[in-house]
Structure formats: C-alpha cells, structure tokens
Design a protein that fits this description.
2 domains; alpha+beta; 10 helices
Length: 385
C-alpha cells in the first residue's frame, strides 16, 4: 500500500507560487478553509498529475485552463507543474519511525522568508550574479577544482541563456514568460543575465538538471507532470522523462488508475450510483485489482493482432517474391541457353573461317604458280620472236 508523503504545486489553477503540502503520520489529514480558497484544486492537482485527460473532470473547458490565468495584481504563468511523492512503508527507510513532533514539522515547513517577495528576488539576484561570475572564462577560485564539472555545466547554461535570448527573441514573449514574485522558482517567469527573460526551453533544461541531481530513496515514487501554454506537456517518474502509459501501468490496480476510486469528489457517489452497469463494473474491477490484468490482456491481444497482420503481410510478400523468383529462373535459363548457343556458334564459325582461309590460301598458291608458268612461257615466246 502506498502512502501520500508530499504534494508540490506550481502554477496550477489558483496556486501561482510554489506550494508544498507534507503529510505526516497514519491518521486522516484534513484541509480546511473558506469557500473559494482552493481546497478542491488540491484534489484536482492529484488527479491531474496521475494522468487525468478530461478537462471537464478538472472543472475546466480546456486543458490549459489548469494553468494559473493571473489576477489583477499577478500576471499569468506559462506553465503548470505538480509533483506527487508516494512511499511504500514496507520499503521506504524511516517509514516506521516515530511520529514527528510539532517542532519538527515547523522546522521542516518553509518559513515566511521563503515566501517573501523581496527575499525571493534577492536570492534570485545573488544566484544570477554567482552564475555570471562562474561563467567568466578562466575564473576558478581556490578550492573549487573539485566542482569544476558543475561550474562548467553552469557556464554552459549561462551561455545557452544568452544565445537563447539573443537568437530567439520570440521566447521572451510575456504571455509565455510573465513576471512573478516567485522568480527564483517559477520557470515561466525566471530572469536571466542582465535582467532578460529566460526562454522556457532553457529554464526547463536547468530544472531537469536539478531533478536529475535529486536523490530518491528506495520505496519512494515521485510523479511530475508539466503543461505549457504552447500545448506541450511531459511526465517524469523519479526525475526521468516517461510516458503517460508508464505512469498508468505503475498505478494500475492500486486505486490510482484511470478508473480511480481513491479520489471521491463532490457528486461522485451519486454519479456512480446513477451510472451504467458497465461503468460501475469498471470501478469494481479496479478495486479488485483486475483492471491491470485486463489491460495487459488487451495489450497482448493488440500485439497478437499486429503480429498476425505482419505475418499475413509477410506471406503475401513471400508469394510475390516466389512468383518473381520463378520468372527470374526462366529468364536465367534462357540467358544461359543463349550464352551456350552463342559460344557454340562462335566455335563453329571459327572452324568454318579457318577452313575457308586454308582453302583460299591453297587456291592462291595454285594461281600464283599458274601465273609464274604463264609468265615464263610468254617470255620464251617473246625471245623466239
């Protein structure tokens, strides 16, 4: 059984700034607040990160409605990101440890300075200045030789930021990269060198590098989903890019699959009771753990059908090649017979020509002898006269 450990939300619906919810213990966690404060958006974020594809289920008309649309004081963001952390208590180290005290929970939670706009902007300026200094050629401080690879990576990213902002001014569109107080965390509103807006592709590259640097413990599953206003989206499983199918297969049979029963939103029970028998059967099969086997069976049958079609196609190709081979065999036989007959004709022609040459040579000798005899006879008669 998996347990919910942490939920991180950024740019999703009403959560324009990075919000992190941590769940401790084995009891029931309740989220309370006035109407319209975004309680339902938390369950929508969980459904969305697990692969929900219906905008209607997420209470929207289009999928990009989940991206923070902005307010009178805040500009819209260019990306929505949700990360869900789950642990397996039987494998995850420290899962059976003591319950955290209130002091430990307070120490683990972000402080007010972490969300203060001025503090965030100051940290962003310091980070930009540090990366700029590290990007200067030949600048290696004493004691930083061991971190040369990291400095080289940061330098390459700074150069990439400059090239991106110089060669591709369209990535600086405010609609894709609006300003936000959370400039240090929000990839849709980060600032690059000299105060320029950083392109989303470059920021995403930096965020992926940070994801890859994270250490995931055994028994820990971190699922991340991102959606951009351009329509592009991606899924990550423990920091690695993956497909939606990989996530669905991972949670299939756990109650978190496509026909999930772990999330019961408002009106869901009435919808289940009034649904068709086939729909209720899908939910029961998901609860019984049959769905994953039926899905594997369906995929295996699909692969089998593809194999049968490929085999049928191979048989057609084999028959066609066989017909071509028979035709080529007949042509090859004719070509061999033609070559043999031509060689025989050439041999006989050489014999005929040699015989004809000998006969003509003999006749030429006889005629030369007659000419010589007649010439001698004519000379003698001329002398007599």
């Amino acid at each position: 059984m998996l347990k919910l450990k942490k939920l991180q939300i950024l740019g999703f619906k009403s959560f324009c700034d990075r919000t992190e919810l941590k769940f401790h213990g084995d009891g029931v966690a309740a989220i309370i607040g006035p109407n319209g404060c975004g309680k339902s958006n938390i369950s929508d974020a969980i459904s969305w990160v697990l692969g929900e594809q219906s905008a209607k289920t997420l209470r929207g008309s289009r999928m990009d409605d989940v991206i923070f649309a902005g307010t009178r004081d805040r500009k819209p963001t260019g990306m929505a990101e949700v990360s869900l952390s789950l642990i397996d208590p039987e494998v995850y180290p420290g899962a059976d440890a003591h319950e955290p005290t209130e002091v430990e929970i307070q120490e683990d939670m972000p402080t007010a300075d972490d969300w203060d706009e001025s503090e965030i902007r100051a940290r962003a300026a310091d980070e930009t200045e540090r990366l700029t200094e590290e990007a200067q050629p030949g600048r290696i401080e004493e004691g930083e030789e061991s971190a040369g690879a990291e400095a080289h990576s940061d330098s390459g990213e700074i150069a990439a930021l400059k090239r991106c902002t110089t060669q591709n001014p369209e990535v600086l569109d405010a609609s894709q990269n609006p300003a936000s107080p959370d400039d240090a965390e929000n990839p849709a509103s980060s600032e690059g060198i000299d105060g320029q807006k950083v392109g989303p592709q470059v920021v995403l590259k930096i965020r992926r590098r940070k994801f890859n640097q994270q250490q995931f413990r055994a028994g820990e599953i971190v699922v991340t989903r991102r959606l951009f206003r351009t329509g592009d989206s991606e899924y990550l499983l423990n920091g690695k890019l993956c497909r939606l199918r990989d996530i669905q297969e991972l949670f299939m049979g756990t109650g978190l699959g496509p026909e999930t029963y772990a999330l019961i939103e408002q009106g869901r029970i009435g919808q289940i009771l009034s649904s068709r028998p086939t729909d209720r059967r899908a939910i029961i099969e998901e609860a019984a753990g049959i769905t994953k086997f039926k899905t594997k069976k369906r995929l295996a049958e699909a692969r089998l059908d593809d194999a049968k079609q490929n085999l049928s196609r191979v048989n057609d190709i084999f028959e066609e090649v066989t017909r071509q081979m028979n035709s080529l065999k007949r042509q090859a036989s004719k070509a061999e017979r033609y070559a043999r007959l031509r060689e025989e004709m050439r041999a006989k022609l050489r014999v005929v020509l040699a015989s004809k040459f000998a006969q003509l040579d003999q006749e030429s000798g006889q005629l030369n002898a007659q000419i010589a005899s007649l010439s001698e006879e004519m000379r003698q008669k001329s002398e007599m006269v």
